[in-house]
Amino acid sequence: MTRGSLPREERDLIEAVSADALMASTRAIAQWVRLSGTADETKAFDWIEQRLREAGLETARYAHPGLVSWPESASLTLVAGAAEHSIPCATHGFAASTPPGGLEGDLVYAGRGSEEDLRKAGVRGKIVLIDGIVAPNRNMAVEAAGAAGSIWIAGASLPQRILSPCWGPPTPETAALAPRPPPRSGGGGGPNRKPGRSRGRRGPRRAERRRATSGIAAFAVPLSIAP
Fold it and tell me: What digits encode the pLDDT tens for the residues 154-204?
């Protein structure tokens, strides 16, 4: 379908789209770190509502109680005999925190983390090292295999992920799906470097997480509606 074959109203709408205006809006919104329930999120809502009013729309804002989560801090140490290697890492939203003293255990490598990979690696009660970026469904497979924790080889850029498989805040019906073994993503060193992979394949290694935490709290989460 070509633009000329569209109804006049749709052609007018397309022609009214401004790439410069879209980029300006993106830059404006990006100036705030919009974590749920925070003052920066409120500023972003204020900005959006003002733009909607300028377009002639009426808006209504509501605040509902929402259980939200955000990553706080994480550290990861690979212990090989007397040597210790600190690896850059990050935790994730709705990830389980380690105990106050951290979590330490034998490290096993399980490829891409498929059910077959996890079974062959024998991950039960151990910390499993997996290639790739963590996702809720992949983390659930690790949990079902009985791992004590997991480390995901993320490369040079540590991803920001939410590990709850539920859409929106947990409810009494979905609370049991919340992640239990503490997962962490490790990276650093360059796009092709995979920290710990070769070490995980030869000889006994232990991984230690020192005080990795994810915050969970109830906040009033705003919702704007433009009828």
Answer: 877 787 788 888 776 667 787 777 777 677 677 543 333 333 332 323 334
Domain ranges of the chain: 3-65, 68-218
CATH annotation of 68-218 = 3.50.30.30
The whole model's pTM is what?
Answer: 0.66
Angle subtended at Cα 119 by Cα 95 and Cα 139, rounded to the nearest 5 degrees? 15
